[in-house]
Amino acid sequence: MGIVECVPNFSEGQNDEIISKIIEAILSVKGIRLLDQEKDANHNRCVISFVGSEDIVVEGAFRGIREASHLINLDNHKGEHPRFGAADVIPFIPVSGVDIKKCVDLANELGARVAKELGIPVYLYGEAAKLEWRKNLENIRNKNFQYEQIRNEIQKEQWKPDFGPQEVGTAGASIIGARDFLIAYNVNLRTQDIESGKKIAKALRAKDGGLTFVKALAFYLEDRKMVQISMNLTNYKKTPIYRAYELVRLEAQRFGFEIAESEIVGLTPMDSLIESAKYYLRLNGFKSNQIFEKKVWEQ
Q: Which helix (H) or strand (E) holds 70?
């Protein structure tokens, strides 16, 4: 039986009780294994990573979406990150014994069920997209078009969902799809100048002439008094982490800013970290066999 990863993004990053209940709902499916959970109060968003066999992963995702729809009211939600729904984006990712086509089938299965049983509009994206323009997530939901906008626009033909009603309740709409591994990577800058941050993000974005396979936005973190460059690296083998970091550093220097820190959100393939370690340690004369001690354990 093939193994699939699911990484649902929920529009709650401040209330631990709600996040815990959503995770409990997902894990109530026997055989589902939690890999990681990340929350961000500024974004007001959490990312849950779990795996399961292809015959149970949809059930786990559905229970999480159902719980989120009961607990999260988008009318009361505020956060830096764009959002469409309580259960905002739900991708399926092939891990072993399955291919991307199977994940497309799972996305369709989940989308149909969420629409029928929960009455939530569903848009398909990534490899599961039925419309070419919906392949890229940012074409569907972005900082200028999110929950408030889709509530007003969903009656238009362009915004007819792939599954479900052409009306939006307080749980919003969900975006479900299939994709390969990506790395969610943030770099925080020692500045409060969000306009300069937006220029740095634009210099990074592939669609604006930046690095191939990079999507980037700039956010202001109120509690940290910093600007964050938030990136998705959609092909880390062709655009590695260190290259994205170095371009942020280079662009920040133009404005007189320094990098405060960087972080990976969720999980990342180990070889992506090894490549970054090789890059930086080689600068000091280290060899690749001195970088990582790999330990394998079984539960």
A: helix 57-71
